[in-house]
Structures are given as structure tokens and as C-alpha cells.
Amino acid sequence: MDDAFELADDLGPEKVLYLHDPATGLRGILVVDNVAAGPAIGGTRMAPDVSLEECARLARAMTLKNAAAGLPHGGAKAVIFADPKMPAADKERLVRAYAHALKDVQDYIPGPDMGTDETAMAWVHDMIGRSVGLPREIGGIPLDEIGATGFGLAVALETSAPFGGLPLSGARVALQGFGAVGMHAARFLAERGALIVAASDSSGCLHHAEGLDVPALIDWKRRGQPVADFPGGEARPRDSIIDAECDIWIPAARPDVIHEGNVERLRARVVAEGANIPLTEGAERRLAERGVLVLPDFIVNAGGVICAAVEYHGGRQGEALDSIAEKIRANVSEVLRRAERGRVLPRHAAVEMARERVLAAMRYRRTC
Ligand SMILES: NC(=O)C1=CN([C@@H]2O[C@H](COP(=O)(O)OP(=O)(O)OC[C@H]3O[C@@H](n4cnc5c(N)ncnc54)[C@H](OP(=O)(O)O)[C@@H]3O)[C@@H](O)[C@H]2O)C=CC1
Ligand SMILES: O=C(O)CCC(=O)C(=O)O
């Protein structure tokens, strides 16, 4: 896509910036989608291969997510084109250059995303005094460390049980991605009695029909080991996660991983979208035809940004967790009730609900 205006509709994007710093090699994009409710919060992704279109779709997901959660913030997303596994000193230089490039973009508050973490947000904060998802030592609520999004996913799945979902006790769960979202979702679900029967990362997949030892696997992964090398399960190719025999499937890695070409392989009865935009529209439609309940990303993975907003406004960890539980419970019930009433996909009900809120916020703006 060459022309950013091709992305424009009635909500945004409001601003698209290309960032380039020849001295450090920084190349990046920022899409500020909509700021009607307040300055935009959204993650900064470090990855070599994200398109402008994907960044804009992720920014829109943030607009809808923040509006659905009733936060006084609009939506944005940024990408730094680079390998997140580069040496720490190079990463720090790049992230600091990125922060410097954003110093005057006051309507964007950077948060962590794939390839960035609390430390990266501390560097951004040090440069421009503005970021969320900070380490505890500088007054933050380290949202990835505490597993804010994984906690929200467990609450969402619990809430969905009476609306065509499943009781968590004994449910077999497969997770694609075992990073900040995936590993904590596994932990909170296992605590609620679920069996984690498969998990994958970028290099492989691990299956165990009787349930993986989640705390031991988390410890293993934190020591930098690939999940497939963990001794307590059977190693299989990375994408075998799609074929896992399970009741609940949780994408917690990259966008568009389930599409029309592989959707028939999914065995689950419920999909909880931990990742952002992990299923194509066609795949979601097909799953609905098969009676699979798909819980939409921007409703169920809002735990991280709710936590970030609580931190930004001076709240504490306990308040953040209470707020995540309260908002996600209310939204999942509301969306699934609307979907049932209107006989529409949960995603359509969720978009309708969030758009109503964004449009209402836009009507208060001077420029409206
Ligand atoms: N962090 C948060 O609070 C939130 C994150 N999200 C979304 O959730 C998703 C995951 O984010 P997060 O957990 O923070 O990211 P992390 O970088 O912490 O973890 C990503 C995980 O995905 C794995 N992975 C990457 N590519 C693949 C692949 N092709 N197949 C299987 N696994 C893969 C990585 O493997 P490896 O370990 O080998 O690198 C890693 O385990 C993203 O879409 C993000 O936008 C949404 C809301 C909030
Ligand atoms: O934690 C944040 O502030 C960013 C959240 C985010 O980017 C997301 O929810 O995808």
C-alpha cells in the first residue's frame, strides 16, 4: 500500500508518521488512529515484517479496545522495523532514537507490544517522560510481568461459559505463542482447573494430552529455552498447534494466523483471541457456521491496556486487576448478549458497541 489515505474511514486514522534516523538505523511507523476519547495508548511492536496496513489495523483495534473498555484514551500502534532479539545495547540505542523521534507527538503514549517490554518502556520514559507498562522500580505496574492480559483472557473465558462457552475446569486448552500473553493465560487457566494440552513458540510446539506442567514450562521458557525442548511432552512442528485436539484454542502470537486456508484444521469449540487480529474475517465466519464461539480480540485481550491506563492515571496493581476483571466481565456479557439478540457474530456486536462509544466521544470534539 503506497497511499495512507486508502486506509481512511469515518474513525481515522488521524495521523500516520514515518520515522527515520540515519545515525541509528531507526526505521518505523506510527499510526494514531483516533484520539476523540483522549491521548492514544497502544503498543510499540519491534518486528522486521509489519506492513503499514497491518499497523493501521492494529491501531484501529486499539481505538475499539480502549473505547470498549471505557478508557479516556484513543488508539494507536507503532512499529520499529528490527529484530527484537538483537543485542541489548543495540536495542536500547534504537528504542531511544524511536522515543526521541516521538518527543513532540503528545497525543501518543507508547506501551509495550511484541518485541518490546518494561525495560524498553523505561528507556522511552527516560527520553520523553511519556510511556506505560513501566517497571515497578520507577512506579509502574509491569503489565507483562504480572500477566495482565492473560488474567483478562481467563476472566473472559469464565464469563463466556453461560453464553455458549465452556466451564474451565477440565477444559483442554492449546496456546499459540508462549510469551507475555500466552504463558500467563496458561497459568491463570491452569489455576482454574484447565488442562494445557499444547503450547507453541516461534520454533516449535509441545503436546501433552494429560496436561503440561505449566509452572515448570514457564520457568523453562524464562530461562530462554524453546517450548519444544521441554522434557515433559512430545515435540512436534510449530504449526501443529493448529491441529491440537482441544476445547479452547488461544492465539497469542502474530496476526492472521487462522485464515480460510487452514481454518478447517481447528478442532476447538471456543477460540479466545489473545493476539491482536489473529483470525481473518472469513475464518471467523466459517467458525461461526461450525458453531465455534470466537471471543473477539479487542474485548478479551484488553487486560494489558486497562492495566496501562490505571498506571498512567496513578493507580496501583490491585486496582488494575479489579478493573480488568470488572470491565472484561461486563463487556463479554454485553457483547455475547447483543450477538445472541441480533443473531450476529460476536465480532459484529463488539464492533457496533465500540463504534457507538467512539462516535459519541467524537461528537464532543470541537472539530466535529
Ligand atoms: N502483551 C500484552 O499485554 C498484549 C499483547 N497482545 C497481543 O498478543 C500477541 C502476543 O503478544 P506478547 O505475548 O506480548 O508477545 P511476546 O513477544 O511476549 O510473545 C510472543 C510469543 O509468540 C511466539 N511466536 C512468534 N511467532 C510465532 C509463530 N509463528 N508461531 C507460534 N508462536 C510464535 C514467540 O515465540 P518465541 O518465544 O520463540 O519468541 C513468543 O512466545 C500479540 O499479537 C500482541 O499484540 C494483545 C494485548 C495485550
Ligand atoms: O499495554 C499497552 O499499553 C499496549 C496495549 C496494546 O498494544 C494492545 O493491547 O495490543
3D architecture notes:
It holds the Pfam family ELFV_dehydrog_N. GO terms for molecular function: oxidoreductase activity. InterPro entries: Aminoacid_DH-like_N_sf, Glu/Leu/Phe/Val/Trp_DH_C, Glu/Leu/Phe/Val/Trp_DH_dimer, Glu/Leu/Phe/Val_DH_AS, Glu_DH, NAD(P)-bd_dom_sf, NAD_bind_Glu_DH. With 368 residues, the protein is of the alpha/beta class. It has two domains: 4-63 and 72-139, 3-Layer(aba) Sandwich (Rossmann fold), CATH 3.40.50.10860; 148-302 and 333-352, NAD(P)-binding Rossmann-like Domain (Rossmann fold). The chain is 40% helix and 17% strand. It has twelve helices and twelve strands. A seven-stranded mixed sheet has the order 9-8-7-6-10-11-12. Strands 1-2-4-3-5 form a five-stranded mixed sheet. Strand 6 (172-176), helix 6 (180-191) and strand 7 (195-200) form a beta-alpha-beta unit. Helix 5 (148-160) packs parallel to helix 11. It is globular. The relative contact order is 0.13. The structure holds NADPH dihydro-nicotinamide-adenine-dinucleotide phosphate and 2-oxoglutaric acid. The site of 2-oxoglutaric acid (AKG) has 15 residues, from strand 3, helix 1, strand 5 and helix 10. 2-oxoglutaric acid binds next to strand 3, helix 1, strand 5 and helix 10.
Question: What overall geometry do the principal axes of the alpha carbons give?
Answer: globular
The share of residues in helices is: 25-40%
- Which fold name corresponds to the CATH topology of the largest domain? Rossmann fold
Cα radius of gyration in angstroms? 19 Å
Strand order of the largest sheet: 9-8-7-6-10-11-12
Give me the CATH superfamily of the largest domain: NAD(P)-binding Rossmann-like Domain
Q: Percent of residues in beta strands?
A: 15-25%
Taking the sheet with the most strands, its summary is:
7 strands, mixed
Q: SS-based structural class?
A: alpha/beta
Q: Please tally the helical runs, counting DSSP H or I stretches of 4 or more residues.
A: 12
Order of helices and strands: EEEHEHEHHHEHEEHEEEHEHHHH
The span between the termini is 29 Å
Bound molecules: NADPH dihydro-nicotinamide-adenine-dinucleotide phosphate, 2-oxoglutaric acid
Q: Are there runs of 5+ residues with pLDDT below 50, and where?
A: none
The overall pLDDT average reads 97
The figure for the number of domains is 2
Number of strands: 12
CATH architecture of the largest domain: 3-Layer(aba) Sandwich
